[in-house]
Amino acid sequence: MAKEIEAAPSVQLSSIAVSETHGENSPYFAGWKAYDENPYNEASNPSGVIQMGLAENQVSFDLLEEYLETHPEASFRGRGATGFRENALFQDYHGLPTFRKAMASFMEEIRGGRAKFDPRRVVLTAGATAANELLTFVLADRGTAWLVPTPYYPGFDRDLRWRTGVNIVPINCDSSNNFQITTPALEAAYELAESMNIRVSGVLITNPSNPLGVTISRSVLEDILDFITRKNIHLVSDEIYSGSVFSSSEFVSVAEVLEAREYKGSERVHIVYSLSKDLGLPGFRVGTIYSYNDEVVTTARRMSSFTLISSQTQHLLACMLSDKKFTKNYIEVNRTRLRKRYERIIEGLRSAGIECLKGNAGLFCWMNLSPLLEKPTKEGELDLWRTMVHELKLNISPGSSCHCSEPGWFRVCFANMSEHTLEVALERIHKYMEQRRT
Amino acid sequence: MSYVLSNGKPLLSQKATNDGHAENSPYFDGWKAYDSDPFHPTQNPSGVIQMGLAEHQLCFNLVQKWLENNPEASICTKEGVDKFRDIAIFQDYHGLPEFRNAVAKFMGRVRGDKVRFDPDRIVMSGGATGAHELITFCLADPGDAFLVPTPYYPGFDRDLCWRTGVRLLPVVCHSSNNFKVTRKALEEAYAKAVEANITVKGLLITNPSNPLGTILDRDTLREAMSFINEKNIHLVCDEIYAATVFRQPDFISIAEIIEEDQEYNRDLVHIIYSLSKDMGFPGFRVGIVYSYNDAVVECGRKMSSFGLVSSQTQYLIASMLSDDQFIEKFLLESAGRLATRHKDFTDGLRQVGIKCLNSNAGLFLWMDLKGFLKESTVEAETDLWRVIINDVKLNVSPGSSFHCSEPGWFRICIANMNEETTKVALARIQEFVQRNGDKLNRKEKCWQSDLRLRLSFRRMDDVLRSPCSMSPHSPIPQSPLVRART
């Protein structure tokens, strides 16, 4: 870690550098510190903090490892001298053609073939973090705003705003209708921006939603498309959890809705995808932007120079994702395993007297602890959260860090641990709930 | 308050619609000529030879051998796959500790172990391109400026300015003193900025220089340090060509200068590094920001989330750069091969009276074609450049695209091809000069006698007529890089 600063630097850094918009002082990250200092380990530290604040997918690595063991061409060894050299030199921002094609077809497969993706519209970035920031640079001027439904992924505060100077105005959703996005909520957010003299550049949705773990219904997508068309603003659909839907038929991508509309007005629509969640490869930094707008594709591609994907990684994934047998099996098995995890945690929580939002996707569940709050306020929620982290030793994410308008909701990740660890976590929750009853 | 355009299309940002991407410069025009007619020794021997791409292609056989002997360095092989899971999950923006340690050690090694680098100050970024943008975001606000000595790498116009809103102001250098960066020039540039009410936030120097291929001497580096300390502005040193120094004098890094005087304010100094040039791995996107300023390291690290190095690549690089024996051999071989290539070209050019700036580093030559210009103007330079592309069929980069103050200079890249192509390129240049020596407005007389020219030309002919034997270690030099078609 960087050394302690003894005195403030004598020269100024940029306003961006000294701002807090990187968001790392929020509780979302504070829980990590508790985990870092005392991490759970099945064997060596069974009473440590269990990490349930990290939306990682660790349930399907064996499938990837098996693929690698049987496909030497995925590494340099399988490609010989020319292969390595060409790959090491390849820095074209169009991306490796085989990789782009493989990404496009993988995205189609995940959507059960219900939408088509043209490889020429795929722009590659180093992770969805970079993709969301890049799209913001392309679509929005400084001082304008994205409308984002709450609750939303805490990282957006940094990704969409920090270096871009763009604002986020929340679209308020609440439990009365299971946090669905409604047209009145969209209109209200737009009016709120107007009243603050902020021009709205677009709407950014996450589908399936993080932190809710729920897919957006077709009719809501239609409403959102109608709204952005009326206002002539952009729509970014972050679909990075699309491969983590427990049942394929339940996910409707904005791509499908556009196809049904014969792509009318599609130049306003852009999709973000990544392999960090569906394939469990966050370290590889693989993000994509898929835009129906030619100008956006060209500009985004040029900008991707700042954040290209390592050609070594593109090569590996091109091999893997072009293997239809592998991808078909992976998508199915991964889906099934996530669903089983989800069902287990829901059952475990229910038997402890805790309900969650009915979810159908993602690597987490949206837990309702509002009945347990001393006070139905943000402070009350944070008090309960501190108990969770320091007494139960479970790092879960408080809804307030996701800008949820109602206190008492928590996001609990379940796919970043072994089945045994999940049982340990559930056991701790049971004990705690029992103690509360007596 | 809706913004409906007459054609009903949604607005894009100003950044999306301005020219900040800088792709309309002639620097990229030559690529189009190359793209549509790329040279190939057997399939297209009369195609355009790519000499506009500063790549280091001379040592791949060494790396390939290392990979074959170290399968565990790849997490995709049988030998390495047990690491796959841990590496694939690793997205910590501090980077793999072994990666940071290896890079710090390598950076020290490249500087002859005269300085030590602290692994905790290493921040990752998406190539040097990402690194430059990142450091700019950390140090300057929109509207602020960086001073940059000319001539400079055209990519800076995009990397430092496009999304940051920061501007570049030239520190004009002249061939009269070999483009030395003088205190006078620095002061002039600074004064101009002050007069125009522009806040200067820093000075960016590239050492070794692109496009000059020269290194900065100790005095110049000290002047730069004293200048930035006096003005209390930052110093960003782009040292991405540090290991391409192939001959004396030795490379002096700013890291050494910092140690010389305790009075220097270290918080002002930041180094940009990358493996794209020194190792020849531009595809792997390994960019590094090394700052002596703790707050910049902290902030930069957070920002690096937008351009982390793939953990798969970090792992491979960590393994490779930690192999002391391999690295020692690589650096020695690399310098030797670059020296040979440099000599081949400078000798060949000298034979037809073309002089290059005296250089001892880089992957290119800074060629003086002032004598070939009809008049000393940018237009004349552009005309000559078109002739070189269309008649001589070489994609070279005109000095104006590097903001050079004097027309007539051209950068040609010489390390991105094998020996065969080198000979073809030289032969074309020599033939062209020979053919057009009378027609071109030569201000300088060729100092070689006609006889010697004819003899040397015939020698080149012999070489071309002999069967082309492709070395198994240097396969077809067709650059896989395909530029955007706008």
Task: Identify the notable features of this structure and list them briefly.
heterodimer, A: 438 residues, alpha/beta, Aspartate Aminotransferase, domain 1, Aspartate Aminotransferase, domain 2, 2 domains, 7-stranded mixed beta sheet, 4-stranded antiparallel beta sheet, 41% helix, globular, B: 486 residues, 16 helices, 13 strands, disordered C terminus
Blueprint of the fold:
The complex is a heterodimer of chains A (438) and B (486).
Chain A: H1 15-18, H2 27-37, E1 50-51, H3 61-70, H4 80-89, H5 97-110, E2 122-125, H6 128-139, E3 145-149, H7 156-159, E4 167-171, H8 183-195, E5 200-206, H9 218-231, E6 234-238, H10 254-260, E7 269-274, E8 287-291, H11 294-303, H12 311-322, H13 324-351, E9 355-356, E10 364-368, H14 378-390, E11 394-395, E12 397-398, E13 409-413, H15 419-437
Parallel strand pairs in A: 1-11, 3-4, 3-5, 5-6, 6-7
Antiparallel strand pairs in A: 2-8, 7-8, 9-10, 10-13, 12-13
Helix pairs in contact in A: 5-12, 6-11, 13-15
Chain B: H1 14-17, H2 26-36, E1 49-50, H3 60-69, H4 84-89, H5 97-110, E2 122-126, H6 127-139, E3 145-149, H7 155-159, E4 167-171, H8 183-195, E5 200-206, H9 218-231, E6 234-238, H10 254-260, E7 269-274, E8 286-291, H11 294-303, H12 311-321, H13 324-350, E9 355-356, E10 364-368, H14 378-392, E11 394-395, E12 397-398, E13 409-413, H15 419-436, H16 450-465
Molecular structure report:
The complex is a heterodimer of chains A (438) and B (486). Chain A is of the alpha/beta class and 438 residues long. Chain A has two domains: 15-62 and 327-433, Aspartate Aminotransferase, domain 1 (Alpha-Beta Complex); 74-323, Aspartate Aminotransferase, domain 2 (3-Layer(aba) Sandwich). Helices cover 41% and strands 13% of the residues of chain A. Chain A contains 15 helices and 13 strands. Chain A is globular and about 70 Å long. Chain B has helices spanning 14-17, 26-36, 60-69, 84-89, 97-110, 127-139, 155-159, 183-195, 218-231, 254-260, 294-303, 311-321, 324-350, 378-392, 419-436, 450-465; strands at residues 49-50, 122-126, 145-149, 167-171, 200-206, 234-238, 269-274, 286-291, 355-356, 364-368, 394-395, 397-398, 409-413. With 486 residues, chain B is of the alpha/beta class. Mean pLDDT of chain B is 88; it is low at 1-6 and 443-486. In chain B, α6 packs across α11. Chain B has a seven-stranded mixed beta sheet with strand order 2-8-7-6-5-3-4. In chain B, strands 9-10-13-12 form a four-stranded antiparallel beta sheet. A two-stranded parallel sheet of chain B has the order 1-11. Classes of the chains: A alpha/beta (438), B alpha/beta (486). At the A-B interface, α1, α3, α4, α6 and α11 of A face α1, α3, α4, α6 and α11 of B.
